[in-house]
Amino acid sequence: MAFDYDLFVIGGGSGGVRAARVAAQGGARVALAEVDRYGGTCVIRGCVPKKLMVFASEYPGHIEDAQSYGWTAHSGGFDWPAFKTKLHAELDRLEGVYRKILGSNGVETFDQRARLRDAHTVELADGRSVTAKHILVATGGRPVKPDLPGAEDGITSNDIFHLDDLPRSMLIIGGGYIACEFAGILNGLGVQVTQFYRGAQILRGFDEEARGLIAEEMINNGVDLHLGTNILGMEPAEGGWRIKATNGTEQVFDKVMFATGRAPNTADMGLEEAGVKLGRKGEVIVDEYSQTGVPSVYAIGDVTDRVNLTPVAIREGMAFVETVFNGNPTPVDHELIPTAVFTQPEFGTVGLSEEEAREREPVDIYCTSFKPMQQSFAGRSDRVLMKLVVSRATDKVLGCHIVAPGAGEMIQMVGIAVKMGATKTDFDRTVAVHPTMSEEVVTMKEPVRGG
Ligand code: NDP
Question: Cα separation of 337 and 355, whole Å?
């Protein structure tokens, strides 16, 4: 049977665009449909604008520190509209780059919604149907809010980049990546931030010691963090929204932001009708090659809810092309993925937390916490944490956890060593780079605890 395309990609985010481009470069006839903006969550409403906001939010601290270093420096206040205009111009530029990459590689694009009609047919919103030998679902995810009174009036991370003005006060609900990152950003930009997290400590699933230090430093920096606390409901009030909390308090905030998780975009996609299985959260069920139970349909990225990170979606896209178009079956390696949480302080992590490692085998823990030179000289009390989790049996470094300025940059490098299977002895025989913070990663001699 002759198909219109070799590959039809639904979704123009990081994963979908990469798969489309690489397949097209290899000679495949490729089309891609995107209902919103090209670049997806990462470029348009996630990693990129978030990181630019992190940078913006750090300047007041830099200016204060500059004074401690002898500079005459004063902050004249933050001009949100000016920053926002520049931010969106940058996002427009990046979206243009994504569109250009597709166009210059011969990928045909459809700026509209697409859904499956059957295993080889895609239905477009304008009524057209096209056929493809392979269909790749890369529709990502979206923020979800809990079902409680008034929640429809709360904002999500999607809205934060479009606010007309920065609020005076904001309540953030959640304790994951997004909640903690925006607590730091908005606090740095001068918003009075309160954060409710229902659990005992933020950033569930990460190393406990790291979580503890991040929470402590966030509080020191001015975030009013309430653990074991959740929102019961919200209603309009003079000056914003009146919030009822599980701890019995009521308070009015200008804005309420829900960072209570994300859900895969699979609703009304024709997936189940075409025989594609969905999981409990609505995620597309795939095997290690990103193939669904329908052989011609594959899915990558957040829509599969495996590891919801941009570089992982990109890898899944590349592995898909390698498997399907280059005749080289390539499973996606989801082991030892380094990642950073852009909290303030920043957190970089790779491998097992101390708690996870202890459940598997006896380990030694090497850990140091100290005031870094640059901040200490400026009179700050900020502490950093460097931690290695080491297997007693093999001496391998099973996990590395860094809470420090620039931790994201550091963990990318440590990630190579850990992925290569480096042992603690390998770390020890690496000469320190002095004076740096990260030299501590290779100078920790005695375990602080073992067993
Ligand atoms: P997460 O799943 O990380 O966190 C959701 C948070 O909301 C958790 O603290 C959760 O609590 C809480 N929560 C869930 N439901 C409710 C509820 N009904 N009431 C109150 N609290 C609730 O989601 P995020 O939205 O923060 O991030 C989504 C994903 O995006 C991340 O997992 C990550 O993969 C990715 N991401 C990566 C970034 C990076 O690489 N720097 C940045 C941002 C996002 P509990 O812990 O109790 O379940």
Answer: 18
